[in-house]
Every structure is written in structure tokens, then in C-alpha cells.
Amino acid sequence: MTYVLDQAKKEIIEQLRTRLPETILISVNELEEPPQRELGDLAYPCFSFSKEMKKAPAVIAAELAEQFEATDLVAAAKSAGPYINFSFNLTGFSRGVLSDVITAQNTYGQIREDQSTEKPKNLLIEYGQPNTHKEVHVGHLRNFFLGLSVVRITQAIGYKVIPISYIGDVGAHVAKCLWAYKKFHDTETPEPGHEGKFLGGIYTEASQLIESDESLKEEVAEVQRALESDEPDPEWLALWQETRQWSLAEMNNIFAELGCEFEHTYYESEVECPGKKLVRQMLADGLAKESQGAIVMDLEDDGLGIFLLLKSDGNSLYATKDLALAKLKFKMYPNIDTSIHIVDTRQSLYFQQLFVALQRLGFDQHLVHLAHDFVTLKEGAMSSRKGNVITYTEFRDQMMKVAQQETQQRHLDWSEDRVNQVAWLIAEGAMKFAMLKQDSDKPITFDPAEALAFEGFTGPYVQYAHARMSSILAKIKGEKISAAEGNFTEDEFAVLRTVAKLPAIIEEAARLFRPSVLAQYAFELAQQASAFYRDVPVLTALESDRGRRLEIVQAIAITLESTLHLLGIRAPKEM
Hints:
By secondary structure, this protein is an alpha/beta fold. The protein folds into three domains: 4-88, Arginyl tRNA synthetase N-terminal domain (Gyrase A, domain 2, 2-Layer Sandwich), CATH 3.30.1360.70; 122-377, Rossmann fold (3-Layer(aba) Sandwich); 426-566, Isoleucyl-tRNA Synthetase, Domain 1. The protein has 20 helices and 13 strands. The strands form four sheets. The chain has a five-stranded parallel beta sheet, with helices on both faces. Strands 1-3-2 form a three-stranded antiparallel beta sheet. A three-stranded antiparallel beta sheet has the order 7-8-9. A hairpin with a 2-residue loop joins β2 and β3.
């Protein structure tokens, strides 16, 4: 379907083309919003026409505006210096917006695959890469939320998206944890739901012991070799399998709780041995070389230094496994056009090196590192090694407690279950929105009180706008809604004009892999919805206005819910 805003733009461009010399190329992408609403709804700059037409841009704009013929969607054109400003027909445009939303329902704003042009069709999006034998903590959440939203946004513009997870279940951190567990905690088991905190604490203990006595490093290295050898030590292998399952059970519960779904999950353990084999083959083929006992790839010609592939002691590295992982992924999904790796910004150089290495191995897929910066709390930065992290469960429970108190105060007559259900939606929405509203390349200092506020640029504010619209619709009890009568007012048009922008916003967010664009839009629409709720009578409106305004409320609710869904956030009907 062609959305009404796109149709209005098309009508403007078609008229301009008939009134300009054929040699002048114009584009719908040049249409922009004027800086002030009173100037109009769209504007086209005439600077580029001047040389060909041998007239001043302001003169050209005035002539084109005078020649413009009104349509059902675009009422008028006026010049303002070198710009032509176009104003929509309030009623024609508003009816078109309502038709778009009511027809599409919860798919409003999305673009079908057959409407996409010159876009990669198949995306592999890797996110959700916590390590076993450590806690899932606040710092992981930005990765989870960014990945979930990018998956939904790119799906919304017609891409075939395959979300995958890659879990670090082997390596030095695992060896540290198992060494300390067997040495100091052999008879202990974690409480259900706190497996990550239990193992993370042991990992921290190991890290601190090794820092104070470097002679212990060899003991840990021996554990890693015992696990990663061609014939792993049975005792260490059994302990690894048991403790690994503790971690995975908790991780899977967290993913499910947050709505993160993966078509496939890969593990470092399944690519560790193939990775070593691949690196040795690269050495034999001359793609890599030995350096002080290690195997490396020389990327100096690419300005990327030396890429370490395998340690001198024979133990694997991230690169060892990532090379084999790429081979495995592209064998399993051979039609992938673009592979996106959502990993924190510290790994930027590493991914540049990895992508060049993969190109030298013959992989021609478009590879993208979508980097995100760190999350810190007001108390400061976190580190598993130092043992000062806030686990996800601790953080969630803290957010839930505040949301429960807020919800209980607003609804003293609600049951405990009802309070808890709504409180979780608020807490989850607050966490996700606070981490998505900022561009991913900017650091975040997370403030729980600010994130949970019902006023300001927050998830609960947007959710509350949706709940207000839903409260109106709940009161009509099946009443037939029709916008057939009456002309639309400026207040009605104002909110629908914002509703009409969603398809373009989704496309921009998908093109940039930037959910923050959607979060800003959600806040803008929530502000418009709140103003409409405050200033425009709906249930008490005249009969000639009631149906139209109820349909506007329905359209706002659908659009808010659709926008929140793309951010991975649910929209409560009551708060």
C-alpha cells in the first residue's frame, strides 16, 4: 500500500515536474518539513533550479507556487523566499491517515518486501552474547535491547531477518571460574535463579587471587588446556558441562522474559576446535604466519596492525573462534547479504581486523559492526573481574519495586496480580526505552528514578499516552466508530499529521540501524496524544464529531502500540 504522506509527496513532485524544464531532476527526498508549522507541512528548495532557469530561486518559488493546483491531499502552495511551502488539505489528508491506520492495524507503518528497492533482502543479526560462568548484568542489557529493536525494525521494512545469539561458554574466564570452584567451592550449588551471580562471584574471586599471585596463572592455563585439548579431561569436562547448564538455564529465562528470540544459538565451544584447525590451515596456505610461537595475520597494509589468531601456548582466542563461526554461519545461511554484529565499542578495531581476515578467506558478504557504548549507573562503572556489577535480576527487582509502588498508589482497588502485571510492563518499558532513546554510539548513565518517571522523555510517559487512549476506547463498549461526518479541525489534524510520519520514521531507523529515531518519534506522538486528550472532547463531543474523534483515538492507540512494539516494548491498556 502507498501511505497517504507518500501519496501527497508524489502529487507535489508530479506537479513540479510538469512545470520545470525536463533537464532539471527533482526528488521526493528533497521535500522537508518547514521549521515552523505556520509555514506549511512540506517545503521544496529551489536553489538548484536557478542556474538552469536563469532566475533567482525566490522568483522560481513564487512562480511555481502560483501555478500549483490543489488536490484532495494538498490544499495550497505559497512561496517563502527560495522555498515553496505546501499545506495539506486538513480533511482530505486526515481521512487518508485514518484509512491507512485502520486498514493496516498493528502493521501500520511497515513496508512489504515487494515494495523495497535496492536493499539487502537477507540480514543475519547477531546479538545477545553473554558469557557463561558470569552474571548477566546491567551492561548486557543495552546489547539485548538494541538487538531486539533492530531485528523488529528491519523486519518492518521487508527484510528477511535471522536473529542469532553467540554464547561464550569456553575460554580463559571459564577456566578461572572452574579452577576456583573446584579448589574452594566444590560442594556448593547455586540457588535457582541466581546461578549467574554464584558463578560470577567465583570468577571474581579467581581474578583477584590471580592478580595477587601471578604464579596461579599456570594452574588456570592448565585447566583451559585440559578443556580445549583434542581429548578433554573427563573430570573437568563434566564440571564444565554441569556449570555451563546452570548459566544457560538462567540466560534462557532472561531472554524469554525480555522478549529476545533467536532462530539459532551458537556456542564458542562448537567452533573452538574447528577454529584452531582453520587457523592452522591458514598458516599452511600462507594467509597467516608464526610470530614468537603464536599464529598471526599481518594486516599492516590495511593499517590494522597484526591480528593475533592463536596464542603461543596453543589456546584459542576470540579470533580463532570467530573465523570458524563465520564459516559455520554462512554455510547454514548461504543467502545472507549482510551480517550485522552488535557488540560494544571496545571491539571496533578487532572487528575491522576480523572483517579483513574474512575477506582474505574469500567471504564476500557485507559485514557490519553495529557498536554500542557502555552503560554505567550513577554509582559508576561496573566490572565482573572487580566484582562490582549489578546483576540483571537485582536491577529488574529494583525497577519492579518502584513500579509496583507507583502502580499501587494510583490504583488502591487493584488486586496484587493486576498491580504486578502492569508494574512489570512499566519497569520493562522504562529499562528498554531509557537505553534505546540515546544513539547507540553514546554512553549511558542509567538513572532508575528518571527512567520510571511518568513525565518527560521516558517509556512510561509514552505508555501512559497509550493507556489514556485505551481508556477512552474501553468506555464505548462496542460502539461503532465512523469518521464519515464533519470536517477535521486543526487540533485533530495536528495529531494525525504526526501519525502519518511513522512509515518514514521506520524506514529511517532501519536504514541507520538506529532505534533512537523511533524513540524520539514515540515521545513526539505521545506529546501530541496528551495534548489531544487534554484539549479535544471525545466522549462528550457533539454527535457529529464523536465518531470522527473516536476513530482518531483508535488511530493514535494503534500507532503508539506499533511504535513501542518496534522498540521491544509492550503498551499497557491501563496504568
